[in-house]
Design goal:
The protein is α/β, with parallel strands linked by helices. It has two domains: 177 residues, 3-Layer(aba) Sandwich (Rossmann fold), CATH 3.40.50.360; 79 residues, 2-Layer Sandwich (Alpha-Beta Plaits), CATH 3.30.70.20. The chain is 34% helix and 20% strand. The longest helix has 23 residues. Keywords: 4Fe-4S, Iron, Iron-sulfur, Metal-binding.
Length: 276
């Protein structure tokens, strides 16, 4: 039986959903699978586990044709391959992702891992803000319909991993062009957007949920008010999962009908699964 580990970072649940479905789809192929949110791990935990692993999977959401900073930091400290270990990279996207998974896979290849797959999966958008207007997220049957379309592609990836079939997405001139253009602007976009975080004090009930779920500890509480530091990665977890929609990104976002918050993949999703 092959031993496989899946490490993922998920802002609002999409990558968690793909990682979880992939773990389930690998089991009939005689893969013993462990799955971890990188937010729950220490470097020594990763090093110890990898010493006995045959295949590695890394998953993350697309941020301007690259990975979010928590995953990039994780990769930076990721141990070198132990022998001829194989690896799969997958990225979840809303629209176009360029050569994201391919670019990240090359970082792992430099550490000695044999890249088998670099794949992208279309999931529901969660970025719809007054200054950055994409299509609004849907929290109804349209989200479930998208999940139903994505699941067979996840099952296909499990089959490719099991058979060793190589599948690389984005390795073409258009993918490289789009990827390069998006990566050039993503850092500035994150800085500009995150500077607009505000708290509607009339809505805020000081429940502490945003402090607890923030992956970078960017939200602080002082004198019965919330404050934002400068370590935001724009995962939108606090914005999307505040129970009273008290966290705003631009004044217009107070209108929850015009700027609905994405509640995650499917009914009953609980954001706590991302941090446990």
């Amino acid at each position: 039986m092959k031993k496989t580990v899946i490490y993922y970072f998920s802002g609002t649940g999409n990558t968690w959903w793909v990682a979880t479905r992939l773990a389930e789809a690998l089991q009939p192929h005689h893969h013993q699978v462990s799955i971890h949110s990188i937010e729950t791990l220490m470097l020594e935990d990763v090093s110890a586990e990898l010493s006995d692993i045959d295949h590695v999977v890394l998953g993350f959401p697309v941020y301007g044709s690259t990975a979010p900073r928590p995953m990039l930091d994780f990769i930076h400290t990721f141990p070198a391959a132990n022998g001829r270990q194989t690896i799969t990279i997958f990225a979840t996207q809303a629209l176009a992702s360029g050569d994201t998974a391919l670019m990240i896979s090359r970082m792992l290849a430099q550490k000695g891992y044999l890249v088998q797959q670099a794949r992208h999966f279309r999931m529901m958008n969660n970025l719809h803000l007054p200054r950055f207007k994409f299509y609004p997220p849907k929290n109804d049957y349209r989200s479930e319909r998208l999940l139903a379309r994505t699941l067979p592609r996840v099952v296909d990836l499990a089959r490719e991993i099991a058979t060793g079939k190589k599948h690389i997405t984005g390795n073409n001139p258009l993918g490289h062009l789009l990827g390069g253009l998006q990566r050039r602007h993503i850092d500035a976009l994150i800085i500009k957007a995150s500077a607009e975080f505000r708290v509607d004090q009339k809505r805020c009930i000081l429940c502490g949920k945003c402090l607890r779920i923030c992956p970078t500890g960017n939200i602080r509480r002082a004198q019965e008010q919330l404050h934002f530091a400068k370590d935001c990665v724009l995962c939108l977890r606090c914005y999307s999962h505040c129970p009273t929609a008290a966290i705003l990104l631009g004044e217009g976002s107070a209108d929850v009908h015009k700027y609905p918050r994405y509640k995650g993949p499917g009914p009953g999703f609980n954001v706590d699964v991302l941090i446990k």
